[in-house]
């Protein structure tokens, strides 16, 4: 870690990723730009966390296929990774449990991150002090708006996600997340832990459309990484 004044940060994006697209990858890039511009955090890493097969969503490829596609999608990135823990579970994992998993692995098992040694420090000096890493959820505006759907989210989970961790929201063109933050009680209560990132270039690539294109025999070139396209073709995914 480079700067003691900045809070170390790990960003986690949960989703189906069936398949991963350039929009999913761009969300992390927009979040990274925001981290630099904001100045309060130092980014330690970014993780895709695909859902388990128990999510049982139409068009959901098997978890090992989705993890493999995500791994191929991030192959050219030095700081975006894929965590298979959620995907490999037999039961569906609520978002708060996924964030708890990252909290445990990074801050309990690994004991956070070490602060950079001060200039002039010798090898014999005491080990650098360690610092807790902030875990945040990365989400699109559509997921945030689902927080207002009755009985879809447990109130305790919303309080944990927004209060204990925080959320970076990528605002889609034409939507007004700030207005929604004002009108929703849970989001307004935790508004200081909710960070909205404007999407300046409209991008509405969706996994649903990708699957439909494959079914119809249409080209998906330049909508997702070539390595992912090759994997879809090699395993005959989404043909029916």
Automatic annotation (TrEMBL):
Pfam annotation, one family: CTP_transf_like
Entry-linked InterPro entries: Cyt_trans-like, Euk_NMN_adenylyltrnsfrase, NadD/NMNAT, NMNAT_euk, Rossmann-like_a/b/a_fold
UniProt keyword Repeat present: no
EC number: 2.7.7.1, 2.7.7.18
UniProt enzyme class: transferase
Compartment(s): Mitochondrion
GO biological process per UniProt: NAD+ biosynthetic process
Keyword Mitochondrion listed: yes
Domain of life: Eukaryota
Pathway recorded for this protein: Cofactor biosynthesis; NAD(+) biosynthesis; NAD(+) from nicotinamide D-ribonucleotide: step 1/1; Cofactor biosynthesis; NAD(+) biosynthesis; deamido-NAD(+) from nicotinate D-ribonucleotide: step 1/1
Cross-referenced CDD domains: NMNAT_Eukarya
Protein keywords: ATP-binding, Mitochondrion, NAD, Nucleotide-binding, Nucleotidyltransferase, Pyridine nucleotide biosynthesis, Transferase
Cofactor dependence: Mg(2+)
GO cellular component, one term: mitochondrial matrix
Residues annotated as domain Cytidyltransferase-like: 12-211
Gene Ontology MF, one: ATP binding
Catalytic activity: beta-nicotinamide D-ribonucleotide + ATP + H(+) = diphosphate + NAD(+); nicotinate beta-D-ribonucleotide + ATP + H(+) = deamido-NAD(+) + diphosphate
Similarity field: Belongs to the eukaryotic NMN adenylyltransferase family.
Subunit and partners: Homotetramer.
NCBIfam families with a match to the protein in the record: nicotinate (nicotinamide) nucleotide adenylyltransferase
Function text: Catalyzes the formation of NAD(+) from nicotinamide mononucleotide (NMN) and ATP. Can also use the deamidated form; nicotinic acid mononucleotide (NaMN) as substrate with the same efficiency. Can use triazofurin monophosphate (TrMP) as substrate. Can also use GTP and ITP as nucleotide donors. Also catalyzes the reverse reaction, i.e. the pyrophosphorolytic cleavage of NAD(+). For the pyrophosphorolytic activity, can use NAD(+), NADH, NaAD, nicotinic acid adenine dinucleotide phosphate (NHD), nicotinamide guanine dinucleotide (NGD) as substrates.
Protein name: Nicotinamide-nucleotide adenylyltransferase
Organism (species): Caulochytrium protostelioides
């Amino acid at each position: 870690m480079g700067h003691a004044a900045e809070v170390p940060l790990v960003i986690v994006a949960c989703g189906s990723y069936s398949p991963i697209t350039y929009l999913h990858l761009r969300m992390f890039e927009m979040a990274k730009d925001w981290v630099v511009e904001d100045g309060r955090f130092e980014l330690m890493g970014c993780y895709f966390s695909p859902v388990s097969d128990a999510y049982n969503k139409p068009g959901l490829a098997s978890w090992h296929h989705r993890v493999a596609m995500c791994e191929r999608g991030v192959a050219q990135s030095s700081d975006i990774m894929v965590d298979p823990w959620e995907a490999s579970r037999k039961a569906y994992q609520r978002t708060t449990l996924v964030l708890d998993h990252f909290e445990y692995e990074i801050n309990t098992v690994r004991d956070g991150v070490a602060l950079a040694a001060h200039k002039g420090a010798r090898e014999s000096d005491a080990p650098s002090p360690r610092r807790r890493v902030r875990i945040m959820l990365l989400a699109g505006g559509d997921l945030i708006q689902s927080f207002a759907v009755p009985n879809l989210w447990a109130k305790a989970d919303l309080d944990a996600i927004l209060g204990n961790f925080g959320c970076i929201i990528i605002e889609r063109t034409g939507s007004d997340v700030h207005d929604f933050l004002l009108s929703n009680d849970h989001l307004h209560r935790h508004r200081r832990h909710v960070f909205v990132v404007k999407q300046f270039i409209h991008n509405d690539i969706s996994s649903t459309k990708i699957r439909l294109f494959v079914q119809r025999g249409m080209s998906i070139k330049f909508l997702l990484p070539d390595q992912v396209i090759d994997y879809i073709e090699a395993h005959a995914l989404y043909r029916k």
